[in-house]
């Protein structure tokens, strides 16, 4: 039977034309992976078994070549063919109209069904490749489906992919029982020992957390907890604890890793209202991305006053990414997530100083002032303006708590007083104060000081009740433990009832929230 030398209206080639294309000089084999569609079975109506390409069975490599083509191949092309065997194209089988008569051509349909089965098997094998994993298998990120991010999508995508190279996932267990999961950041890699250093949260080895009040110091940490580091290639390695610091809830782990890792890059500053992205990895090591901004908040009374906060408005998927980074649009880390539930994070300025101190002194020392503070700059502008109008004060730190029997208490510093300067430098936020404390510790250790030393620092205090400003030399301890603020209490031992000063109902109401923590 003569085969028509034409192109069908639906775009399918005749067998003659297909052979011409295969035998043409220097022709390249083209692979056209079709999209997998639900109606492929219905669409695949026509083929002829004789039209099967070489290698259609089980992705068999194409080994037959036309003599003329080999003659024209360059030496480089011949070397390429010797190291790589091209597979045949993935072509849909079909039955030509003139052969689509089961009565006249009973052998066509079985041959077609056999070819169709092989075609579908090829598609399934290709669909299992990693390049097809994006086809609806993962939940889309905010950068993919949030329209309000379109103006920054390109820059944000580059920033996220850059930062993601330094993010690792860790898990911990005690006596075979799972403890927790978190993320971390590569901070170092030693070429000779093939070991990398990871910075993460100490929550990874925190075994007990009896209260949300960090200033009570009741958390317990298991230094012998088994830590597993989940590497980017899907393998795991055992992590060894190098050091953990309770006040900042940071921990450093060492792990064997043969290939050099990409370190996290820190941005020295972060400001409220800034556009940021919170990154983490889920249990499958897939990246999780959440867009938000840095919030204008003073830390709660029970939280450490060096915290900043991440606020997001959309219901993005959030994994348990304690220890995951918060990054800016430049891809640099501006913070490390401390508590993914309250969205608190340790800002980069403090992280950098902590990492530098640990590298240099194998510890992270800090000065314990015996007080908690709130920043005036984060108050409502109405309140800030009133302070300026009535008392000519518009900046500084309000004393929220004074620890029992601390030197600050003995010097008469009380709740409601204002700290205006630290060692002669004006201070307006608790983050600034925390950076000053770390800088002072670095200077002290450079000069030979060590942990548990007692030193004096100068602070300028405005006593609000007396309307008095004075400079005080405060005796503080150098420590790498979590600072504990003890509530001032005293026992009632007198047997005779004594009179007390009657407070106004307004003052009593105002004290309710202050005595709860």
TrEMBL record:
Superkingdom assignment: Eukaryota
Official protein name in the record: Uncharacterized protein
Organism: Avena sativa (Oat)
């Amino acid at each position: 039977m003569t085969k028509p030398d034409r192109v069908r209206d639906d775009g399918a080639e005749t067998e003659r034309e297909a052979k011409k294309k295969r035998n043409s000089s220097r022709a390249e084999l083209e692979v056209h992976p079709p999209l997998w569609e639900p109606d492929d079975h219905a669409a695949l109506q026509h083929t002829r078994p004789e039209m099967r390409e070489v290698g259609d069975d089980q992705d068999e490599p194409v080994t037959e070549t036309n003599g003329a083509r080999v003659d024209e191949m360059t030496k480089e092309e011949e070397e390429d063919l010797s190291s790589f065997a091209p597979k045949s194209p993935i072509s849909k089988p079909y039955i030509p109209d003139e052969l689509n008569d089961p009565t006249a051509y009973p052998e066509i349909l079985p041959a077609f069904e056999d070819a169709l089965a092989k075609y579908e098997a090829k598609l399934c094998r290709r669909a299992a490749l990693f390049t097809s994993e994006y086809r609806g298998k993962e939940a889309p990120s905010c950068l993919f489906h949030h329209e309000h991010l379109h103006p920054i999508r390109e820059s944000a995508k580059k920033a996220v992919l850059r930062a993601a190279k330094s993010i690792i996932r860790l898990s911990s267990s005690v006596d075979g029982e799972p403890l927790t999961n978190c993320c971390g950041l590569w901070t170092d890699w030693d070429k000779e020992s093939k070991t990398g250093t990871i910075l993460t949260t100490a929550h990874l080895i925190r075994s007990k957390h009896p209260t949300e009040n960090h200033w009570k110091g009741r958390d317990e940490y298991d230094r012998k907890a088994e830590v597993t580091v989940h590497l980017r290639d899907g393998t795991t390695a055992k992590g060894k604890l190098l050091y953990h610091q309770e006040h900042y809830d940071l921990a450093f782990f060492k792990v064997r890793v043969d290939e050099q890792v990409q370190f996290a890059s820190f941005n020295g500053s972060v400001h409220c209202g800034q556009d940021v992205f919170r990154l983490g990895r889920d249990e499958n090591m897939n990246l999780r991305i959440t867009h938000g901004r840095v919030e204008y908040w003073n830390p709660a009374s029970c939280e450490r006053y060096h915290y900043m906060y991440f606020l997001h408005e959309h219901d993005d998927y959030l994994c348990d990414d304690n220890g995951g980074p918060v990054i800016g649009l430049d891809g640099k880390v501006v913070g490390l997530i401390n508590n993914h539930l309250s969205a608190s994070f340790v800002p980069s300025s403090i992280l950098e100083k902590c990492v530098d101190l640990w590298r240099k002194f194998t510890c992270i020392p800090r000065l314990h002032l015996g007080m908690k503070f709130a920043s005036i700059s984060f108050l409502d502008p109405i309140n800030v303006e009133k302070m300026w109008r009535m008392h000519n004060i518009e900046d500084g730190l309000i004393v929220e708590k004074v620890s029992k029997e601390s030197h600050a208490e003995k010097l008469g510093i009380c709740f409601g007083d204002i700290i205006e300067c630290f060692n002669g430098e004006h201070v307006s936020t608790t983050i600034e104060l925390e950076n000053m404390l770390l800088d002072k510790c670095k200077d002290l250790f450079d000069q030979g000081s060590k942990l548990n030393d007692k030193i004096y620092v100068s602070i300028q205090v405005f006593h609000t009740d007396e309307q008095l400003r004075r400079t005080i030399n405060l005796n503080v301890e150098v420590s790498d433990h979590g600072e504990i603020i003890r509530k001032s209490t005293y026992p009632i031992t007198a047997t005779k009832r004594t009179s007390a000063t009657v407070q106004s109902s307004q003052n009593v109401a105002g004290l309710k929230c202050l005595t709860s923590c």
